[in-house]
Amino acid sequence: PGFQRLEIPFLIELDREGRFLGLHDTREKVGKKLIGRAFQVPQEQSRTGSKGWMKANLLWDHAGYVLGVPKSEETKDQEMARRQHGTFCADASALADRFKEDAGIQAVWRFLQKDDFQEVLSHPLWKECEKIAGCRLSFRLQGSTELVCASAALRAYVAEKDAGGGEDSEGGEASGDAMEGLCLVTGLRGPLARVHLRTPVPGGNSSGKLVGFQRSSGYDSYGKEQSFNAPVSKLAAFQYAQVLNALLGKQSNNKFSLADATVVFWGAEPNDLEDFLADILKEPSKESPEASARALKALYRSPETGAPPLDEDLTRFYILGLSPNAARISVRFWYAGTVGEIARNIRLHFDDLELVHGSRQPEHLSLFRLLVSIAPQGKSENIPPNLAGELMRAILQGTPYPRALLGAVLRERFQIEATIYYQQTSRIDWKEVAESDLVGISSITSTVPEAYRLIRKIKTLGNIPVVLGGVHSTFVPDEGLEQGADYVVRGEGEETLSQLVSHLNGDGPALAEIAGLTYREGETTVHNPDRPRVENLSALPWPDLTLVRNFEKFRIVPVLTSRGCPFDCNFCSVTQMFGRRYRFRDNDDVMAELRSLYALHPKKTFFFYDDNFTANRERTKDLMERMLAEGITPHWTAQARVDL
Fold it and tell me: What are phi and psi of 335, to 5 degrees?
């Protein structure tokens, strides 16, 4: 612990007197990208908040710290760079006082004391450094192959400091003495990490962490702050962060992108699957379009080539899906199995989806291409994040595909036509109704007389099945049948209605097997058992508002993020309909839907029509903060208790 490998694109070369000799570009071309060389450097500081400038990395950092170069000409950025550089110089001065015999440290301090970096800024390569956001810089002494920050003296100093518990908490405040305890990862006692290292994922905050706790944010208990509530030793925290950052690195072959997630994978021992898993599942790159085909051949034909069959490989294998979530990271999915299990299940997936295709078309669709083909408007940004994760999990485990995927396929590919009428924005086309195979009507108590009038009108057009749903019908289903409905869906109806449609198409369960359904058999009214409420709201597909006739006339865009209410007001039907247990969608899923809706309707008012939008204040606060951070700021309204 104390050192880590990081990409350092540019090095400042000095002589022993601290004179600037040149700017060295460490980058090499990998494919079409320039990738900086990775060096062992002192562990990166964890710094967030208004006091983050008080912590500099030892003898390496970005240009604001090393040279005092602001990221823009704005006054606030210039002042921030001045503070950052002051911190960097103070640390260098302390090191120079401590290590008077270290030629490299002394040279760096002499260079900084001059406080004139025009030679660096006018060097021909400086423009290249400026193009890289947060470009890292460090120092190298003339004639040396190692960085100044990796000298033997500094390594010993960092190890001593780390052993002494000199660790800072987030925001730049000192944490005091180190705490020892039992590590939840290793099961061994040792010094505990108060804060964990950064493990940023693509598309997320550069300070994002897999594990992170803020002070005074509701996680402190029994006098234990921040990560001490979930104790991990410094050694384990350092090791997992180093490995995860290596897997996420630009040159890593153990990762690929899937919707908003980055998928990383590794084996307990070297194995063939690790070499080509990414090529099997990711979108083929333009640089190597044949890589996917070669990988699939290896998956299917390893016995033919004389290689040991993957199906029999018992090597443990791990797959982790991560996505950005404000300053932290969400675990989209986690799978632990064997190489053989994964190989069999992936092959099963491709066998199940085998289609007749043209000679120039790919033999198999990548996961990305499959998801894009069913996303609203065919846009990758509209892929529901939870759907991608659920699909990946189903493939790896060899289980049925998520129902949301099948629903999307039916809508986008098989063109099952549906039209939704809202009488305040459009008149009902009764000719279209007369040609329908099924009509559904939803109502509450105040609108149920109009619902019954519509049923009577529909029945004059022919023998068209009518299904009734909503709160009122859930509580008095017999009344709906008496008014002419053929079926009543009670409670949360997504699954019930889906099974009813399948039944009417001739390929679904028998009516008696559809939970939550009320109907008649002759003169007898049948109430099937209640259907359990939906546990995972994030697994439901987003409502397709484009199906609503004249939706462009709507002034309000509805969004549902939760169901249920933990309170039990005697005048309210919510707890009887949706229960007292508060269930809510993952904020990643909500944000993905909001991005899609806001892009189409930035001027409209958004209505969060949850039963109690603020029942979980931490969840609601996180959602609001993320909306602000992404600039999703429509006028909005919601239902909530005034005492929350």
Answer: -135, 130
